[in-house]
Amino acid sequence: MQFTVDLQKNLRAGDRTFQLQARFASASQRVVVYGASGAGKSQMMKAVAGLMTPDSGRIELAGRCLFDSAAGVNLPPQQRKVAYLFQDYALFPHLNVRQNIGFGLLHGWRNPLARADHAAIRHWLDAFELTPVADQYPHQLSGGQRQRVALARALAPQPQALLLDEPFAALDPALRERMRAELDTVQRRLAIPMLMITHDPEDVRAFGDHVLRMEHGSIFSEEENAA
Ligand SMILES: Nc1ncnc2c1ncn2[C@@H]1O[C@H](COP(=O)(O)OP(=O)(O)OP(=O)(O)O)[C@@H](O)[C@H]1O
């Protein structure tokens, strides 16, 4: 199995409660979970990434246990070896493109400028055609360039899985199509397991080898297509 997720979490905000009961297993490398706003998709992703601790359950990625409440396992996010791409890309505004990509690789560096020309950074700059804008800052980039920087930064530390939260939501339609094609190529080239949450049917069509539907905190299986 590439993904085994079975988690429970009771979320409370004031007198409102939300019960997350996400359960699925997939042998596919491209799993898409879709559902309306508020269905619980982001909370599930946070649990997989280690940014939210479920009340109980078990999470495995490619046979590696990340969380198991019964066994007392709860790996911290940095040990999970997953890349989490947020909707808004969350690039560091005060770091240029080269430094943003290098951040994950050179975690804890004291002087970003001195160490930023690492061979791996050059590789990713090249792979995503970002070399011409390597010294520019996020606010000086187009939406597509920002998305490519975020993807390069996520992939640079060679994660074992890619988690994507509405990765194209902020892009205009033409760019969205291009970036979908780009992600499609990159995922196939690296053969990296990918879990995407979205409410866009086009994402489901493009990446849903295994499609799951989420409603009111629970997951329903839809279909598993040949890769
Ligand atoms: N920290 C929290 N405490 C309590 N409830 C929360 C918390 N975070 C989210 N929720 C609730 O959990 C539910 C699921 O939220 P979540 O962000 O996972 O939905 P989503 O499916 O990702 O929606 P969207 O597509 O809009 O991002 C919502 O009802 C939300 O109000």
UniProtKB/TrEMBL annotation:
Gene Ontology MF, one: ATP hydrolysis activity
Record carries keyword NAD: no
SMART domains in alphabetical order: AAA
Domain ABC transporter: 2-227
Keyword Membrane: yes
Assigned keywords, A-Z: ATP-binding, Cell membrane, Membrane, Nucleotide-binding, Transport
Annotated Gene3D superfamilies: P-loop containing nucleotide triphosphate hydrolases
Transmembrane segments: none
Protein name: ATP-binding cassette domain-containing protein
